[in-house]
Amino acid sequence: MTATHESAAESAIPSAESQPAPGATPPRRPLAARAAAELVGTAALVAVVIGSGIQATELTQDVGVQLLANSLATVFGLGVLILLLGPVSGAHFNPVVTLAEWWTGRRGAAGVTIPEAAVYVPAQIGGAIAGAILADAMFGKPLVEWSTHDRSAGHLLLGEVVATAGLILLIFGLARTDQLRFAPVAVASYIGAAYWFTSSTSFANPAVTIGRTFSDTFAGIAPGSLVGFIGMQLIGGVVGLALVALIFLPGRDTAE
To answer: What is the value of pTM for the model shown?
Structure first.
């Protein structure tokens, strides 16, 4: 769930003595390796989200404790995955982040190109589906069981706009201020907080949303709610980029 921007490009180039910070522009690894990192990372993320949800519901009937367990597992799992795979692919694990990075870098700055994004996004979606199936298998659930958890209410859709906008603002704000080395902790912490302060429990990720339709468990989402959630996540991505442009104006510090 990390991204890059032209202001962070120079600081992200590795020297002979150091390695790139997690989330910074990695050396241009082969596209196949980067796609594999996105697939495996997204699969692991969804397995953590769904698996911890299943485990929580089997251990307690208290919904608050279930959400706490689910959010804590996601925070730790996401932080580790960004730290591990960020230097390979940027650790997007999220089509909104990939598209936002393409948009910010479309004029020749560092970032994914359209052909690369066309590989990243299917890898993320495929990984999310595989992660959901893996989680179901680990807990003896049907491998594919469509979720019946309806999440189509308007206040939940608003929650997705807020959650995704905040995520994009955080990632690209870190890039603009040359602080992507903090991405593993910052992004994981934000998602953990957004579990609790957004009504939707912060999916904020179209690939993960698709994966979660494949499991009729605590973390699932009904296929009928899919279009609304993904639409609001895309809108949230646009809002997030607008906030980045407004708040982190290029050259503002120099002018002042």
So the answer is: 0.86
